[in-house]
Amino acid sequence: MTAQTDLIGQPVQELDTPALLVDLDVMEGNIRRMADYFAKYGVNWRPHTKGVKVPGIAQQELAAGAIGVTCAKLGDAEAMAAGGIDNILIANQLVGRRKLERLVALIRRGTTVVVAIDSAEQALAMDAAAQAGGVKINVVLELNVGMDRSGVLPRDPALALAHQVHALPGLTLCGLMGWEGHAADIPDPAAKRQAIAAAIEELVATAEQCRAAGLPCEIVSCGGTQTYQVTATLPGITEVQAGGGIFCDMEYSKWIDHPIGLSLLATVVSRPDSQRIIVDSGFKALGRPLTDPQPRDIAGVTGIALSAEHGTISLDAPNDTPRFGDKIVIYAGYGDMTVFLHDELYGVRNGHVEAVWPVFPRRSFR
Questions:
Q1: What angle do CA 282, 287, 291 make, to 5 degrees?
Q2: Cross-strand partners of 219
Q3: Domain ranges of the chain
Q4: Residues ≥6 apart with Cβ < 8 Å to 283
Q5: What is the pLDDT of residue 361?
Q6: What is the dihedral of CA 74, 75, 81, 87, to 10 degrees?
Q7: 212 Cβ partners below 8 Å, 6+ apart?
């Protein structure tokens, strides 16, 4: 599906619904806020695009000072490269012949790619693909710094794997990455800072151990939107991957002081009683977020229940507005669970559509 560029200049209220919106003033302000923060602490910014999925927005981040982008999937990296982004970290393990052939093809087209690995088996398979394709593949070791998802253990286990990787002719060892995600939702600020610092200490200590052994370790990459305001201040890291904060949503706004820019335009399709508003946007438009979406400009909302194609907004007192046929704005609960459901993202400013971007297609999930 192609972007509906004929809608540029139209009032937002003219959009058919459900329609995914981003407030351009808010997004641009959040981009500046994050870029300035990383510059202040002397670390590079490599924003994650898993919840953004629009190369044109990544270009704005690069213009603000980002050195490249982070992708969760090879398909996302291919889509970003097709959109003109040429410095990409794939913060995930790529497994299987087809994926490795696609990776080699992406590198042969001239895109600078760095890929995460966490095992000798993966390194050997990637080395074989690189040699067969006549390329060198840049890699970082992913460390498990406490989240207990992917990753080799820090220090000696990581050092042993680094030695193995460095000896493979098809691979170029560039450094390390980790994700302190287990600390993201800790409510107490002091406890959260302590958990983040402990995780980053493992990452940085392993980097120092690698360098002491004569191994290259230029990149020390970590950090997400929920942790970046601490992570960026810690010594020894070189780049931060936080990305979702440029949109912000109900989930991220619990942890960072960014205004919310991502929302959904919905239409009231039923007012069965004075304390219930039914809209044409359910979980197929808003996702199943970690934090509930929040209707904007409606007083007394006690909750929103999502079925497939409907949202039921409950009120604490009778209210005859909004009325049947009115369009309302609902702040997204969590952008990572919302953006990928849509074909287009509408950039809005002063009540009018200023940009229409196609969102990565479903095939980018591979």
A1: 105
A2: 175
A3: 5-19+257-365, 24-249
A4: 306, 307, 308
A5: 78
A6: -30
A7: none
CA–CA distance from 129 to each of 140, 226, 326 (Å)?
17, 36, 56
Token readout for 94 is: 């790529």
Please give the backbone phi and psi of residue 9, each rounded to the nearest 5 degrees, phi first: 95, -15
- Quote the pLDDT of residue 80: 97
pLDDT, position 1 = 43
Q: Among 26, 83, 20, 24, which Cα is nearest to 49's? A: 83
pLDDT for the residue 363: 65
**pTM, to two decimals:** 0.96
Nearest to 137 by CA among 150, 153, 120, 124: 124
Angle at the Cα of 291 from the Cα atoms of 306 and 185, rounded to 5 degrees? 160
Decide: residue 288, CB within 10 A, 0-12 exposed, 13-18 middle, 19+ buried: exposed
Mean pLDDT by 10-residue block, N- to C-terminus, for the chain (366 residues)? 78 97 98 98 98 97 98 97 97 97 98 98 98 98 98 98 98 98 97 98 98 98 98 98 98 96 98 98 95 97 98 97 98 96 97 96 74
Distance CA 164, CA 158 (A): 10
| Topology, domain 5-19+257-365 | Lyase, Ornithine Decarboxylase; Chain A, domain 1 (2.40.37)
Gap between the Cα atoms of 99 and 115, Å rounded: 12
- R_g of the chain, CA atoms, integer Å: 22
Architecture of domain 24-249: Alpha-Beta Barrel (3.20)
